[in-house]
Design goal:
The chain has helices at about 10-20, 25-35, 50-65, 80-95, 110-120, 130-140, 155-160, 165-175, 190-200, 210-215, 230-240, 255-270, 280-295, 325-335, 355-365, 400-420, 425-430, 440-470, 480-495; strands spanning about 40-45, 75-80, 105, 125-130, 150, 180-185, 205, 215-225, 250, 275, 300, 315-320, 345-350, 370. The chain is an alpha/beta fold. It binds one DNA strand through helix 6.
DNA sequence: AAAAAAT
């Protein structure tokens, strides 16, 4: 079976060939012919099975007839996360290079202006996360009654994220004469109900992930003390021990704060790391992901935003800094490695309080996970003797290392609870404690800082932008200058606070949060 | 004990 057997148009086929593909994956072979005939599809497939192309390619072929009208997109693809949406857009660009298609990506965290323009121009392909899509609609910028093809991707994940009511609302806005392509990795009852309501005589295409995948991942549990500094030390030792084999790695944490803390800590220890979680500025998220994909970053510290769906080929290692609370997340996380038949390694750092979660994971995967270096009964209680302190300046104090870590834990966290996220944990504070590092790393950190600065200023610009373009549309008759002034004031407050001058305390400055 | 998503 080759792609040319599936009934795709010559334009699509040539783009597929140029991308270097000749053989469709099972989900592609199963779904594409039916999708081309206009049938509804129920695709049960995980990521890494070629699912995205299984709807992108037939959609491109079908879009060759007809043209989009202003504010009336012809197709709509719903994705649970911003990164996934962006990834689907890349697919449309890659395989649609022989088409003249208007593609619009509607996701949160970025300005409305550009999205509005694309809608106005008429979008053939609209890719969106539910929140921003509904936002556009409520502002009257978007009519959904011209949608011919609707794709709901990663439905089970949308369920986990509480998007189902939004999805139902959106489905009801689209004429029932549409074609619906529906994808989910699992079929819990709520999802089945949804398919019964919104799919018409769907063709069911089910693909199990290649059995080799599970067995090609070497899984280990690693015992650790439970204090954050214990876990960080365990992780660092593990990373060093794996260094020779390790090409790149994703390090998963359960919480966003932990992602930030661990990221900063790894930078201090000269690891070439980036961070990714949902509270980060959207630009920074995209940038981190791109850098990791391009091999400019070797380690990516991430929340579960990166656990599913993201197409990051060739990850050699997955580290679970925390044992995931939900067993399925473990499967998704370690599934980031050992893809496409390659081998991968996963290490899960476990503390005494994690045993019940480990039990649940082992029950789910139907296997015991081996301990890397002895199980938890061999963990020594860890109050005093840590490694040598690594302070950049000042006399090394007794238990300096621990002190520094306490700071992470005891000082920053409470502040974050009370302060706005953007004010929490200014990078300056972390950088103050930088040990004297190798040149490359210092330069790297400088670059990062510069980028944060850029992100920050872009944000303020974008805010001002939005005020300018949106206010008149709301029918607000006040002169534009008035609406801009408060924004400008705020900006001045941030940059050069009256009364503090150059001595403004770091915590009062607004910085891009990582 | 979490994360994600509209502001």
């Amino acid at each position: 079976m080759t792609f040319s057997d599936l009934g795709l148009s010559p334009k699509v086929l040539s783009a597929v060939t140029d991308a270097g593909y000749t053989q469709p994956t099972p989900i592609q072979a199963g779904a594409i012919p039916h999708a081309l005939l206009g049938k509804d599809i129920l695709g049960i497939a995980q990521t890494g099975t070629g699912k995205t192309a299984s709807f992108v390619l037939p959609m491109l072929t079908r879009l060759e007839k007809g043209r989009a009208r202003a504010r009336m997109p012809r197709t709509l693809i719903l994705e649970p996360t911003r990164e996934l949406a962006a990834q689907v857009e890349e697919n449309f660009i890659r395989y649609g290079k022989n088409h003249k298609l208007n593609i619009a990506l509607l996701i949160g965290g970025v300005s409305f202006d550009e999205q509005d323009k694309k809608l106005e121009r008429g979008a053939d392909v609209l890719i969106a996360t539910p929140g921003r899509l509904l936002d556009h609609r409520e502002r009257g910028k978007l009519l959904l009654n011209g949608v011919e093809i609707l794709v709901i991707d990663e439905a089970d994940r949308m369920l986990d994220m509480g998007f189902i009511p939004d999805i139902e609302r959106i489905c009801e806005m689209i004429p029932f004469t549409r074609q619906t392509l529906f994808f989910s990795a699992t079929m819990p009852p709520e999802i089945t109900k949804l398919t019964e309501k919104f799919l018409h005589a769907p063709v069911r295409v089910e693909v199990s992930k290649a059995a080799s995948t599970a067995t090609s991942i070497i899984q280990r549990l690693v015992k650790s003390g439970s204090k954050p500094w214990d876990k960080r030390e365990t992780l660092r030792n593990l990373m060093k021990a794996e260094d020779a084999e390790l090409k790149n790695a994703i390090i998963f944490c359960n919480r966003k704060v932990e992602v930030s803390e661990l990221f900063r800590s790894l930078l201090k220890y000269d690891f070439d790391a980036g961070a990714l979680h949902g509270d980060m500025d959207q630009r920074a998220r995209m940038q981190m992901l791109a850098n990791f994909r391009d091999g400019k970053l070797r380690y990516l510290v991430a929340s579960d935003v990166a656990a599913r769906g993201l197409d990051i080929p060739d990850v050699s290692h997955v580290f679970n800094y925390d044992v995931p609370i939900h067993a399925e997340d473990y499967v998704h996380r370690i599934g980031r490695t050992g893809r496409a038949g390659r081998s991968g390694k996963s290490f899960t750092i476990a503390t005494k309080s994690d045993t019940k979660y480990i039990d649940a994971i082992e029950r789910l995967i139907g296997n015991k996970i081996e301990w890397h270096d002895g199980d938890l009964s061999t963990v020594v209680a860890s109050e005093g003797e840590d490694e040598a302190p690594r302070r950049g300046r000042g006399a090394p104090r007794r238990a300096g290392r621990k002190d520094e870590d306490r700071k992470d834990k005891g000082e920053r966290k409470p502040r974050e609870r009370h302060a706005k996220p953007s004010e929490a944990a200014p990078p300056e504070a972390a950088h103050d404690e930088q040990p004297v590092a190798a040149e490359a790393t210092v330069a790297d950190i400088g670059e990062r800082r510069a980028r944060k600065e850029a992100i920050r200023s872009e944000n303020t610009e974008r805010k001002a932008d939005r005020n300018e373009s949106r206010t008149p549309e709301r029918g607000d008759s006040r002169p534009q200058r008035d609406t801009n002034r408060p924004a400008r004031h705020r900006q001045e407050d941030n940059d050069a606070t009256v009364g503090f001058g150059d001595d403004m305390p770091a915590f009062m400055r607004i910085v891009a949060k990582v």
